[in-house]
Specification:
The structure holds two protein chains of two kinds. Chain A has one domain. In chain A, about 80% of the residues lie in helices and about 0% in strands. Chain A has seven helices and no strands. In chain A, helix 1 (about 5-25) packs parallel to helix 5 (about 130-150). Chain A is globular and about 55 Å long. By secondary structure, chain B is mostly helical. In chain B, about 80% of the residues lie in helices and about 0% in strands. Chain B has a two-stranded antiparallel sheet with strand order 1-2. Classes of the chains: A mainly alpha, B mainly alpha.
């Protein structure tokens, strides 16, 4: 194995594990600001991973993908989230439904399950093997965060994190799709974030509070 | 010929956005839907003569299956646009929505049609995913149009659950791409459906299995298959009635179409039994869950929403059992459901206009107060319940025949038991609304006391203006009434015999999904 590839392996692993850690750490975060900051760091790491791979694979379209990810997920969406949080005066405390240690344990168990089960299901080799496992773990932990948090904003962030995991999975499986598809998916995510922002303010108007416990008129 | 399907609704949406004149944007929407219907019939005609419609530059194409979906989408969007003019017009006149929301409705309506049309013509499976996600985003705004507590809640639930679900579908799509890149010797993979199908036998089965499970869960969420259906009853009951009709009648089919396309590849790679078992699992759970919940529903729109889950389950079962009858039955059922369900939503919309409620216990005697609506509604309910001589009886009968031929007795037994419960649930609820003595219904056209404050904001028409407005309202009502009659007639015709061209189109499409 050439020396350069060892470097690539360690860099990509370093970045992907960083992404996993930010998601796991979110289980213990209580302030809305730090919650958004963790999402931003996660997105920046994703963009960095794409840029590094673009450099080593010498693929121009990955540079574009990295730039688009940086602009949308790293800058635009965090700004939008901060604006929504500021305008709606969302209280900073994000009280989870279950306590922090338990949430951290469950997240780690999810990672273990992914690592032990995925080696049987899908055969993937190369420097992205670890990346795929990390990305599936991120998707599952984000779902877990969405289930355990009560605030509507946290659900949106959970959803966006899940999409980061999805992008990571897509990247590890395809080394970046064609640029058109990359752009299209990012466009959908961006529109989704904007529309969710619109609904957040409507929930605030109609329900006074952004607690999802109140969204229980419709049953059965 | 495919580009007009995208350009016409886009142009109509722009017209609605830019020209603030009610007549103009209403006409633009109806005309746009009529134009795309004509284009759709042309595409279907060329599909019948064995051709595939392609667009220079690739990326979009239409075979017989796409043509079938396009015809269903465009014709139903035309019917719904005519009904929208009546229904949303009276919502505006009663002050349930303001002028801005009324125009906004038509902008989103055209975009909604556009995104739905993009689903069947996308060759690239990732583009198809984008289109399906686009339908969620646009229709979520339509579901939340009334900005009431309940509608905002329904829209929120809808967008979150469907986006999470569909994320898994994209992951599944990526995994299919990975499988294809492995099959082509580690080179670049393919996401074009045609290319994937060509290399299907060489794909790694374990990878395809994982991808297909994710795709079925993902698109199944959007298609309303139990147990991932939770968003559906809320969104369908809270949306404006014409949108409920589109969500139920077409959007669910668009999502199911996604499953169909992937299933063709999965069958070529894994063989039929795996696909069949997946479809049976989701189909049976949908039919059972829906039949149970239909017994306890008090709200007619929610009842119809659960009925949609049941019918999606039936489509999944028909497709799962396969064989010449099964595939044909699945597509025929898509067509029947796309006519029958919107028709019943239109009927409940009329009932709401008269009684100001769709709670089945507060409505009685529709047959006496509105004989024509009652008669059309009766046809619709019998059709949805699967009674002869209407279209759904034929498709369900074909499915039972295919189940019997494959000796799937357990599936058949469960379906028949659930079907009985559905029949009872539908007839009890709607029978009570249609029959019986009317409970002092409010006269037509008089706004309800609850909205008197809202309607006071609208300047009251005077003199000749009253007549003009009344006749315009009557004209709109007449048009949508004619549409409802045509739909009821179509249900009856499809139960007696299937017109030649439609039969051939369905046969060709069944050949594609049964490949």
């Amino acid at each position: 194995m050439p020396k350069a590839w060892v470097v690539v392996y360690s860099i990509t692993d370093f970045i992907t594990v960083g992404m996993l850690l930010t998601v796991v750490a979110m289980n213990s975060l209580k302030r809305m600001e730090s919650f958004i900051r963790a999402y931003t760091v996660n997105s920046l790491l994703l963009a960095a991973l794409m840029a590094v791979s673009a450099f080593y694979l010498d693929a121009a379209h990955l540079y574009i993908a990295a730039a688009v990810t940086l602009a949308s997920k790293g800058v635009a969406i965090p700004l939008l989230l901060k604006k929504v949080v500021r305008e709606l005066k969302i209280t900073h405390e994000v009280e989870p439904n279950i306590n922090t240690p338990l949430a951290l344990v469950i997240s780690s168990v999810l990672v273990v399950i992914v690592y032990s089960s995925l080696s049987k299901g899908i055969f993937i080799e190369g420097f992205t093997e670890n990346t795929l496992k990390v990305s599936i773990s991120i998707i599952l932990i984000s779902l877990f965060i969405m289930i355990t948090r009560k605030k509507a904003v946290t659900q949106v962030i959970g959803l966006l994190l899940m999409e980061n995991g999805l992008f990571l999975a897509g990247f590890s499986l395809t080394y970046g799709m064609s640029t058109i598809i990359e752009l299209g998916v990012v466009f959908d995510v961006l529109m989704g974030a904007i529309i969710l922002g619109v609904f957040l303010s409507q929930i605030k108007k109609t329900f006074i509070d952004l607690d999802l416990d109140k969204l229980t008129t419709l049953k059965g | 010929m495919l580009l007009p399907l995208i350009l016409i609704p886009l142009a109509a949406a722009l017209v609605c956005l830019l020209i603030d004149n009610r007549r103009v944007y209403e006409y633009a929407t109806v005309l746009s839907c009529a134009a795309i219907s004509a284009v759709a019939l042309f595409i279907a005609w060329s599909a019948l003569s064995g051709g595939m419609t392609t667009q220079p530059g690739g990326a979009i194409y239409a075979d017989a299956l796409s043509a079938f979906m396009i015809v269903v989408i465009t014709l139903l969007s035309l019917a719904t646009s005519v009904y929208s003019v009546e229904y949303m017009g009276s919502e505006l006149e009663h002050g349930h929505i303001d002028k801005k929301a009324h125009r906004y409705y038509y902008v989103l309506y055209n975009l909604f049609i556009l995104t739905m049309l993009l689903v069947p013509i996308a060759d690239n499976l990732a583009v198809m995913w984008m289109a399906v996600e686009g339908t969620t985003l646009v229709s979520a705004l339509l579901v939340g149009l009334y900005r009431k507590r309940s509608s905002v809640e329904a829209a929120w639930k809808y967008i979150i659950l469907c986006t999470v679900g569909i994320t898994f579908a994209l992951l599944g799509t990526f995994i299919f791409y990975y499988a294809s890149s492995g099959a082509s010797g580690g080179g670049r993979g393919a996401l074009e459906w045609t290319a994937l199908l060509a290399m299907a036998p060489r794909l790694n089965p374990a990878t395809v299995r994982l991808g297909f499970i994710l795709v079925v869960v993902g698109y199944g969420t959007k298609a309303g298959l139990a147990p991932v259906h939770n968003w559906l009853p809320d969104a369908h009951s809270e949306a404006p009635t014409p949108i409920s009709a589109l969500l139920s009648g077409i959007l669910l089919n668009c999502a199911f179409y996604g499953i169909l396309r992937f299933a063709v590849i999965a069958r070529a790679s894994l063989g039929h039994p795996f696909v069949r078992d997946m479809m049976f699992l989701f189909g049976i759970s949908s039919v059972v869950v829906a039949s149970i919940f239909m017994l306890i529903q008090r709200n007619a729109k929610r009842l119809l929403a659960y009925s949609s889950i049941e019918h999606m389950g039936i489509i999944a079962l028909s497709f799962g059992v396969g064989g010449p009858f099964g595939f044909y039955a699945a597509l025929l059922h898509i067509l029947n459901h796309a006519i029958g369900k919107p028709l019943m939503f239109f009927v409940t919309g009329r009932i709401k206009g008269r009684y100001d409620t769709v709670e089945s216990e507060q409505v009685a005697g529709v047959m006496k107060t509105m004989p024509l609506v009652g008669a059309v509604g009766f046809v619709g309910i019998m059709a949805l319940a699967g009674a002869p001589p209407f279209g759904m009886f034929i498709s369900e009968f074909l499915m039972l025949k295919a189940l019997a031929a494959g000796s799937h007795w357990v599936v058949m037994g469960v379906f028949l038991a659930a079907g009985g419960m559905v029949f009872y649930g539908l007839l009890r609820s709607f029978g009570g609304m249609f029959l019986g003595a009317p409970m002092s219904p409010a006269p037509v056209g008089q706004s309800m006391p609850a909205h008197s404050t809202a309607s006071a904001r609208i300047p009251l028409p005077v003199g000749a203006d009253v007549n003009r407005r009344l006749s315009a309202r009557r004209f709109r009502g007449l048009l949508s009434g004619i549409v409802m009659f045509i739909m009821a007639g179509a249900l009856l015709v499809l139960g007696l015999y299937i017109p030649g061209p439609m039969d051939r189109l369905i046969t060709l499409s069944a050949g594609i999904i049964g490949r």
